[in-house]
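hey team, just a heads up i'm posting the complex here instead of the shared drive bc the drive is being weird again. everything in one block, sequence lines first with there labels, then the predicted structure for the whole assembly after. its three chains so it's a bit long, scroll down
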Amino acid sequence: MALNLGCTAKPGNARDNKTGSWRVFKPEFIREKCTQCGMCTIVCPEGCISPDEDEFPVPDYDYCKGCGLCAEECPSEAIEMKKEEK
Amino acid sequence: MTDKPCNLFDVGHRACGGCAAALAAKLILEAAGKNTIVVSATGCMEVFSTPYPETAWGVPWIHSLFENNSAVASGVVASLKKQGRTEKVIALGGDGATVDIGMLCISGAFERGTDFTYICYDNEAYMNTGIQRSGATPYDASTTTSPAGKCSFGNPRPKKDLPAILAAHGAPYVATASVAYPADFKKKVEKAVNIPGPCYIQVHAPCCTGWGFEGEKTIAIGKLAIETGLWVNYEMENGEVTRVKKVRRKPVEDYLTEQKRFRHLFRPKKNDGEIAKIQQIADRNAEKYGTDIVLKK
Amino acid sequence: MMEIMEGSHAVARAVTMCRPQVIAAYPITPQTHIVEALAEIVANCELDADYITVESEFSALSACLGASAAGSRVYSATTSQGLALMFEVCFNVAGMRQPVVMSIVNRALGAPLSIWNDHQDSISLRDSGWMQFYAEDNQEATDLHYIAYKVAEDHRVLLPSFVCFDGFILSHTYEPVDMLNQEQADSYLPPFKPYHRLDADDPISFGLFASPDYYQEFRYENDQALRSAQDVVASCGREFGEMFGRDYSGLVEAYRLDDADTAIVAMGSLCGTVKDAIDELRDAGKKVGLLKIRSFRPFPAEEIKSALSGVSRVAVLDKNISLGSKGAACLEIRDALYGSQIPVLGYVLALGGRDVRKKDIAAIVDNAEKGRGDIVYGLREELLK
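-- predicted structure starts here --
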């Protein structure tokens, strides 16, 4: 693998770093309580929560670090942080 | 997600869980869009987003040094102008890069009327090097170079007022914001990048690692800063304050007790004298900017 | 066309014909006449460039870096304290492989404060990864700017370049200079084609940080690029000669060196004085010659070794000193001749503008013949008692 001249990089390859492995607590999204307000998507510092085809938010566990910000800010308490079994 | 197109600030970056700087980067690019060139200063955001060969940036991005992002941005702006290109230029830096070491270059770029937007993510200390005080560290915060001790209450000086300094340079638009109010922040970014000339936004970015709180509280802490009057969200247009976020103020203790950096004010016993001084800072902010909601009788 | 011009103005004219799109400059003696001249040229629409009046040299080079990365040909000029202030940016520009060209109007570094000439400023940046070319006269100072751009922007090189010429001695002196016209300049130096650039249509991240897994290889590649730039310097110098009659294919240049016993090695305007001194010494029966180093970086060690292979001794004149050690060229020449048994004697001289005359060169040759070297030449002993 040759070096990129001048220490440059093309977008996209930060994805090689699966930050989901850092997680201790895992957010579980409870569909029944979700009002699709979008707050979790807005506040996620990873940008790894996006709506599915039914407009319900779904986290990408490959990258979710389990910080809990989404659960804390969810106005309808539709996200629960659970200790992850590994 | 791996199959989806890249976000403009993409997944896989190495910020701490709950990092406000990462959230700020994401919000900035959501607001500014893909026709943006970002010039980053050295700091947490630069380091956690670009360990070679990985980059989290989906827009053209350049990092040179700690203190020169405004000067590098000046060159980018000049080059784009000569080529007739339309990208917006945003310089990004932490508070150390911005209010301390980068002051010379920022002052020069603003004085020259450079058409760019400078955004400072203010986490109130040098976090990348391990939580040392900066000119933006608040009064009495304990950092690794302003530690609380037997003869110290922490940082002995209040925050440097860089927004006022840059407004005095004749900047057409200067604003403060907080990651705790993402929609407001994005609106300000969008406004700034579309106003010709040098614009400045200082966004409050609570740092769970440096301030001592759990990552899930990043937004709650940011809100408390505003609700206590220790951070004021406002806009200045052509030197005049044009909009201020009003609050029903809470006592500053509500904010201080949530963070380890102020713990020495409460243990081993409560330091009423110092807390009163911090309350005075909040009171002065409230008076200066008129943030208090006054109930009609 | 031959014109009598001040060195700074001749350089400003040559730079204009190189068509930089962004100029960032800050005034400092004795460089100021260049940026003043360029400001006037831009103000009169004789050059379509954006001229950024930065607040410091540090920002001048930082702005050049940004403009270069965004895809423009850039120019700056500085000297002495200004270059020292750019120290951090210099390493950065080279590591980011941006082909910035900058004139260095050589001047001493304080303290004590001195506005006069020596080479301490640019020599102190010898490890930064920039090419460094030294001009003997104003003709060479102007010509080297075209060559510097062509070499720097060559995709086999992609390194920044200093064009160094002596403060006051050249910058403020009127000499006849044969200026290229714009058509000639354009035929030699094509428009800038960046290797890659900041561009929203094809986003790239510039200036990532490298962990220990990568850093050393980046430094190695930087070093390799500078070493292999020698061939490009030679070919661009040759092409210039073929087109305009002044050949710069040599990274060094010999003067009456063929049968010399004593070889003097020097850089910059000092070479003119040395050549005159050599003529007189030759008339007096002394076999003395000169090896002028035009390119200090890349350093043409092999070329130097072969040029000096037949001499009995080498006297290296350095207008700089690594305090606690020796002059920079002396150390490099000694390294180049390692194992050859040819004694290399170092003479640090002309610091802070101390004048060097023909009789000083004769005295140095005399010293060298007696094996007395590694000295600071021309000290006023009465001040040191």
